[in-house]
From TrEMBL:
InterPro entries: GH, GH13_cat_dom, O16G_dom_2. This is Alpha-glucosidase. GO terms for molecular function: alpha-amylase activity. Residues 18-399 form the Glycosyl hydrolase family 13 catalytic domain. Coiled coil: none annotated. It comes from Microbispora rosea. Belongs to the glycosyl hydrolase 13 family.
């Protein structure tokens, strides 16, 4: 199976594991995860049963935003390793049948990127400044009132008086995508990594590349012009025999979202509607229906995502009084019943993995890690914390290094001190502890991913009537997924054999917040 071309449609039904490299495994004892650590743990991922890994940005970066501030798009952050090690990783992963997807960040660079440094030095009116958005201010203030997504103004003034645009942190200047040099640069960057064997790219902030600075209102989301860019990218990826393009596209309007998945643009995009859905039967059913209605007519496979490095861990979120997710209202420290949350997260995993399309697993999700909500303020790294004037703690709570083994921190993650502290309570959640316990979250994920490979993936779904409080559907293989979201137990179907359940099944009953996979009697 290794290689890129053996099964060209592999991505349509793939299980893709997201590696947040900084926190996965540390190979050299400096407390930060790295390529050596990841390479040593590839057998774990093969055993888990994933088809691909997606790595968050691994480029040289001052880490003002966890690596989403890229200083050099053609190299590897020294703390993570070297380009030669990255090439080895890609090769070793292929040998285990695992493909590699990397993160490309086209909306903005780091302020330490050579182009931005050149622009600062070259001064107003220069060609170098044309690659970014430099403008004179209005009076003493910025060119317009746009706000940064991380809080505060989206403009920063440089010593010669001009201002530059940054939709995120000031250390992340936005590229000017009207400039042909910028377009050319990213086509070259894609080729650079495809030449090194990467199987696909995840495109950061994919919908905000094109801006209309003359608009009084903030005008950067989903301009039609962005599609031209992805058509060019698709030509490059196709020329490599079908490397894939995955968009980070947060758009509430599903018709506009679907435009990104036209046959000559991106292959897939993350399903944030499903990720954001409350743990309620009507909401989840509506989200699944909407997703399928968006994807099926255009022949694009859906994706199913429960978590990533930007949102609260499902175990914590599903244990809260409000179970939906909203980026604008992060619900920091809203009380959570973690036992309830864990039960629901297990059921949610079986639901997501049974749906048609591809599925993402964010590292630690398979261990049932909770959001860490007590990181000491002086250790908080996320720029949201500073930018919000210390009102939003941000995303570090889902980025805490993984617990691998042993009874106390650093839990086999490192021989040094982890860059964020791990809770002592994670001793029961280590890979080692869970491997020894058949009822663990890890064993559930392993079994589900194995069955999924054989029986699920891309295809169609048929809804089954099972009352208002349950979700039930059949896949073409005959596998039925049944999830009880109500307070009362529901009866299991009378025929068929149980393949896997997210919790105990008592006397033919499916308990509240539990999911089961059943193979229909034929
Ligand atoms: C989305 C990424 O997932 C997030 O972590 C990052 O902060 C922003 N894009 C800006 O690059």
């Amino acid at each position: 199976m290794p290689g890129n071309t053996s099964t060209p449609d592999w991505w349509r039904g793939a299980a893709i594991y997201q590696v947040y490299l900084r926190s996965f495994a540390d190979g050299n004892g400096d407390g930060t995860g790295d390529l050596a650590g990841l390479r040593s743990r590839l057998p774990y991922l093969a055993e888990l049963g994933v088809d691909a890994i997606w790595l968050n940005p691994w480029y040289p970066s001052p880490m003002a935003d966890g690596g989403y501030d890229v200083a050099d798009y053609r190299s590897i952050e020294p703390v993570f390793g070297t380009l030669a090690e990255a090439e080895k990783l890609i090769e070793e992963a292929h040998e285990l049948g695992i493909r590699t997807i990397i993160d490309v960040v086209p909306n903005h660079a780091s302020d330490q990127n050579a182009w931005f440094q050149e622009a600062l030095a070259a001064g107003p009116g220069s060609e170098a400044r044309e690659r970014f958005w430099f403008r004179p201010g209005v009076g003493d203030g910025p060119p317009n009132g746009w706000q940064s997504i991380f809080g505060g103004p989206a403009w920063t003034q440089v010593p010669d008086g001009e201002w530059y645009l940054h939709l995120f942190a000031p250390e992340q200047p936005d590229f000017n995508w009207n400039n042909p040099a910028v377009r050319q640069e990213f086509l070259d960057v894609l080729r650079f990594w495809f030449d090194r064997g990467v199987d696909g790219v995840r495109i950061d902030s994919a919908a905000v590349l094109v801006k209309d600075l003359d608009s009084v209102e903030e005008s950067y989301t989903d301009h039609d012009g962005v599609h031209e860019i992805y058509r060019e990218w698709r030509r490059v990826s196709d020329s490599y025999g079908g490397r894939i393009l995955i968009g980070e596209v947060w758009l509430p309007d599903q018709e506009r979202f679907a435009n990104y998945l036209r046959p000559d643009e991106l292959h897939t995009a993350f399903n944030f509607d499903f990720l954001s859905s409350a743990w309620e039967p009507a909401a989840l059913r509506a989200s699944i229906d909407l997703t399928l209605a968006t994807h099926v007519p255009i022949g694009a496979p859906a994706t199913w995502v429960l978590s990533n490095h930007d949102v609260a861990r499902p175990v914590t979120r599903y244990g809260r009084a409000v179970t939906s997710w909203d980026n604008a209202e992060r619900r920091d420290r809203m009380p959570s019943d973690l036992e309830l949350g864990r039960r629901r997260a297990r059921a949610a995993a079986l639901l997501a993995m049974a749906l048609p399309g591809s599925v993402y697993v964010y590292q630690g999700e398979e261990l049932g890690l909770n959001e860490v909500e007590d990181i000491p303020e002086e250790l908080i790294d996320d720029p949201m914390w500073e930018r919000s004037g210390h009102t939003v703690r941000g995303r570090d709570g889902c980025r805490v290094p993984l617990p691998w083994s042993g009874a106390e921190p650093p839990f086999g993650y490192s021989t040094g001190e982890p860059w964020l502290p791990q809770p002592a309570g994670w001793r029961d959640l280590t890979v080692e502890a869970q491997e020894a316990d058949e009822s663990s979250m890890l064993c559930l994920y392993r079994s589900a991913l194995r069955l999924r490979r054989e029986l699920l993936g891309d295809g169609a779904l048929t809804w089954l009537p099972y009352g208002d409080e349950a979700i039930a559907f059949r896949r073409d293989s005959g596998l039925v997924c049944l999830v009880n979201l109500g307070a009362e137990p529901v009866a299991l179907p009378e025929t068929g054999s149980v393949l896997l359940a997210s919790g105990p099944l008592d006397g033919g009953l499916l308990q509240s917040d539990t999911a089961v996979w059943i193979m229909e009697a034929r």
